[in-house]
Amino acid sequence: MSVSTSPTPQFIDLFESRLHSLLEGTPAEQRGSKLLLEASRHLATAGAAKRMRPLLVDHFGEAVDLPSGVRLAIATAAELIHTASLLHDDVVDNGTERRGRPTVNAQWYNSVAVLGGDLLLCFSLEQLSELPRPVTATAVELVAEMTRAAMEEVQVRRARRWALDDWKRVAHGKTGALLGWCGAAPALCVDQPVLAKRFAQCGHHLGLAFQLTDDLCELLGLQRGKDAYADLRNANPSYPVALARSNSPHIRSALDEMWDQGLASDAQLQQMAARIIDSGAANMTLERIEDHIDNALQALGDFAERPGGAHIAQWANQLRQMASEATEEL
């Protein structure tokens, strides 16, 4: 799925330069982690990376007139946390393709992906060392929340009987929490805790809308750079699939049987996706996307008409349009 905020070339150029410099490492750092840095660069600097989180940090930061250097520190931390979570997820999922190239665990092996993700988490916290304590404290809380949600995802996938509540816990704890922090951190830097809550709410709803759209596009076969029907193949929590499981005992039984047997063929996965779409789950997912975008814009309030906030509103409506277009022919 490709969606981006309004382009801010200068900020992104500075961000890319900072990220590349960080992941090159000094000779002393490379002695102990040259392979880990190479593996981290393999994913973090892939051309297919959308940089959604750094751009949102830039826009939220602009809304509170935050200096560019501080925005860069928060943006880099957010992207490193996100990239670390992808490295870990690909190990859990046995993923083979990410951002149009082999995953780190496929290119090297699982331990490289796990330890590379750990190294990136350390780098992320280093980026925040000179910022106000609440920013670092909430970043630590964020990593803990994302870790708990990832564990929840592992457990429900193994159980192969997950429902809507399971999807919500995972999505809130991973995508929603990270984009919420992208909104809160800039406001915390200017000592505006009330505004930080509003921006966190805005970012959280945007994160859920993004995850719903990602799930929808995956079900419709519109994803690029990822394994086809990976959610269905791996029994990953997915909103439209969870809806279909909740609303149709026949689909639930068919999914459970397919997952219990394992190694579903591409034809079986396509057939199952079609059944779920025909059940109306895709259109109901679109309705939830609309709800979350509306809630995000409500939390943004009059900032939607100001510098930075206007870009966030534009991105939200772009996401709305993408989800709508994906379901046009259903």
Fraction of residues in H or I helices: over 70%
Total of helices: 15
Unreliable spans are none
Sequence of secondary-structure elements: HHHHEEHHHHHHHHHHH
Strand order of the largest sheet: 1-2
The tally of strands reads 2
CATH architecture: Orthogonal Bundle
Amount of beta strand: under 5%
CATH topology, which one? Answer: Farnesyl Diphosphate Synthase
How many whole angstroms does the radius of gyration measure? Answer: 20 Å
How much is the average pLDDT?
88
Termini distance?
18 Å
Brief overview:
It contains 15 helices and two strands. The chain is mainly α. The chain has one domain (9-326): Farnesyl Diphosphate Synthase (Orthogonal Bundle), CATH 1.10.600.10.
Structural account:
With 330 residues, this protein is mainly α. The chain has one domain: Farnesyl Diphosphate Synthase (Orthogonal Bundle), CATH 1.10.600.10. The chain has helices at residues 9-24, 27-44, 52-63, 68-93, 104-107, 110-127, 133-159, 164-189, 193-219, 230-234, 239-247, 249-261, 266-278, 281-300, 309-326, and strands at residues 97-98, 101-102. The chain has a two-stranded antiparallel sheet. The relative contact order is 0.12.
